[in-house]
Amino acid sequence: MKRAVIISLSIVLILYIVFLWKYLLVEEILGLYLIPILTTTIFGGLCFLLIRIFKPIRLQKLFSILLLVACIAQVVILLMIFRINPSQSFTKEQIISDIDYAVNMLEEVHPDPYSIISKEDFYLKVDFIKQTLSETVSEKEAHRTISKIYALIEDGHTGSSPLFKLPRLKFLPYKFKIMHERIYVVRTFGYRNVIPVNSEIISINGMTSQQYIQEASQLFGWESLSWRNSRLQLPFMFDLWDDCRNYKIIFKTPEGKTKTIRTSGGLFSLFDMGRSELNQTAGNSYYQYKSLADSIGFIEFNAFSDLEKFRIFLDTSFTTIQNKNVKHLIIDIRKNGGGNSSLGDEMMQYISKTDFRQFDASHIKISNELLNEKRFEWLDSAESKAGTIHINTSPLIELRENPLRFTGKTYLLVGGNTFSSASSFTSAFQCFEVGTVIGSETGGVTVAFGDMYGFKLPETKLDMGISHKKFFQACGVDNRRGVIPDYIVENSIEDEANSFDRVLEFTLDLIKK
After folding, report:
1. Domain ranges of the chain
2. What is the CATH code of the structural domain delimited by 174-279?
């Protein structure tokens, strides 16, 4: 029994080292290996004390059994890691088949896929991508390939969904901020060979920061630089672009010294990042209200989601605002990536002083794919002809009777993450002079494609989305720019590192003045 335990533990240790070396840091491999042993040892000691009271038992036999249980637990951990790091691959022919399918769907559904790139140039680049494919393509490389193709049309709503099912247990454990085409560290989740906060990244694995920004931005659709930067700053964006697990980074410290470091995060860093994100959102729903001072109210509005719940929130919040005699209301949508624009109409009913609309017009592509989903039942049958564009001019939305309508001064905080429906809400807010817009240019542009049709590719089963409408937001200008705030204010690198909200503080100072 004893020999079997020793052999089993030794075999499992070898398996851990061989199979987890590319996924985890060495101390994490040892940690995962020892945790089941330590747990069963502690548990075994307690069991031994309890059993000893009622019935004699050999301590050696008990621990041998528990250590064998530990071996089983270790094997389960191995299988779980393999489960979240699958190694699925495809043939070149399968990827080409999916590319052709994706391009055909793009032309069928999108209202104007060649508004930025000509059809000739698009096909030349698609053919080049096909020619550079390897005979065997990993799932991640397949995702990159399709993403590059859809990114060519520069539409922020058209592309492939992130591969959340493929987390990397070795990754670059930092939160970055991009300013003026430079990359800065504003938060670290590593615990060894750490780059100091406020440092500027000069190069990663031999590629300059500017080269990385240029290449990584070809993996997703974007219209404005503010939206591009907000996407590039997302966790694991670097991982999508590069398969490296160990990173050689040259950086400049806040003191101006240039240093080189080899760094990588692992499982512990991943937990730290997750804990940090949970702490930031703890207790927060998509929307919440709080008082900042006796006469200042604050609404954090992070997603255009759940219309019925939002109506209840608005009624409750504006009842409080009225009862507390609030004179200044700040609405923060800097983290809002959009959703159901009907929530914007509801919010405007509480803060607008005139009739309004979020969209001046929309161009809608009629396609067989959406006809089959019965999305155009509201159209006359004569208009529901596949391949045509239906132009819909939006009337003003009348203000309804609302005793809770806010009559004080309203301030809207926006930024690069303000996208889609959040951007159209900002357009209406500014167009109909509801209040003052503060922050940086919105990530969503004022004339943009949107309202996605979703489908799966036949071979790789990747989730895809294609816009089927072109929206002209209220007072929108077709110049591929977002809404420009009345006051342009942005957090500096030091502000981000010190968790100082310069945009909010500027707004509070403006109110005081």
Report:
1. 2-84, 174-279, 285-512
2. 2.30.42.10
- 105 alpha-carbon distance from chain centroid: 25
CB distance 155 to 110 below 8 Å: yes
Q: Angle at Cα 78 formed by Cα 134 and Cα 278, nearest 5°?
A: 90
CA distances 256 to 275, 281, 372, 381, 495, Å, are 31, 34, 60, 67, 19
DSSP code of 178?
E
- Give strand ranges (E) for 117-158: 136-138
Burial of 450 (0-12, 13-18, 19+ CB in 10 A): buried
pLDDT in tens, 163-211: 544 445 677 888 899 999 999 999 888 777 789 999 999 999 889 999 9
Longest dimension (CA), the chain: 88
Distance CA 190, CA 181 (A): 24
CA atoms within 13 A on the CB side of 452: 18
What pLDDT sits at residue 166?
Answer: 42
**CATH topology identical between 174-279 and 285-512:** no
For the entire predicted model, the pTM comes to: 0.85
Question: Which backbone phi and psi does 207 adopt, to 5 degrees?
Answer: -105, 130
Q: Which residues of the chain have pLDDT under 70?
A: 1-2, 44-45, 47-63, 82-87, 162-169, 235-236, 239-245, 276-284, 380-384
Task: Evaluate whether 244 touches 205 at the Cβ level (below 8 Å).
Answer: yes
- Which fold, 285-512? 2-enoyl-CoA Hydratase; Chain A, domain 1 (3.90.226)
